[in-house]
Model the fold of this input.
Amino acid sequence: MAAVAGTVLSVFGLLYARFLRYDHVALRHVPDAAVVAVRIDVTQAVFYDPVRRYALPLLGGLHASDAERERRLSAFERRSGLHRSDLREIVFARGLDPDDWILVFNGFFPSDPESRTLVRALSVEPGFRADADGHMAVFEPSGISAARTGDDTVLLASRKAWLVAAETPTDRAGALGMDPNGIGGFGMGPEELRRLATTPAVLASGDLPALFQKLTRVRGTFTIGEQVSLHVTFEAPDPDVARRAAAGTRGLLKAFSQQDRFAGAPLLHDGLERGRLDSRPDDVGLSLVWERIELDRGLSHLVEGSIP
Done:
């Protein structure tokens, strides 16, 4: 009985290590120069049907057909050993220059710290080549670069410098207010908020540009239950600034939700209908809430509208 019990516990331990236990490390690879970041926990999101049907298949190529995406992804999985079923986290981070960005993929991937397998797998794709030491795959002529890290994370960056910056763990995600737990969220620093203050839509929104200049950061958290919600938190030294910025942002989003030429208008409209402003001692929250059927319809419209 002791031997049987030991065997059962060993099996459960292996199953836990393989399928349940996962260290959330993707946010550690947000570069110090990032001004905004978005995270999604694939483990939770993949069980939500609209995400599984509309968002994840785009990894096979934005403009490809469903059959072509599946063919390319399956072929890449065979060559690289990186399988969609092993993916657990995706993080996107961008610099002040929109051309500086990075995608971070992490999960139960086989170890490949020197990127040899990844580079060989990508070298088969048109336009990719290995760099001089074979550690990185580079796409010409854009300079998009891919590599692996010591903790088995996959990095895909707009240029080599951003990829190198992301290889060493940082605390930037924490500074942006990012939470490594939960289904996902985003964080936006003061540099990005100052940039947003100069965009035409914000400039035309009364005192919103001046308010954005005074915010310290804006962060958001997704939750999925009977309803799907996005809670956005505005932070500033002066609580009144945060409250007015949140109210002004809500007004701006309402204006966008009434524009027929904006692909996300129906989704915004539905979310704002149930949304509300919540004031707390140190910050102000703006919530957008959707019924599942509304998010399903909105994601379908966004994805299909983005593909010519």
In short: DSSP finds 13 helices and twelve strands in the chain. The longest strand covers residues 227-235. Residues 5-20 have pLDDT under 50 and may be disordered. Residues 189-306 form one domain.
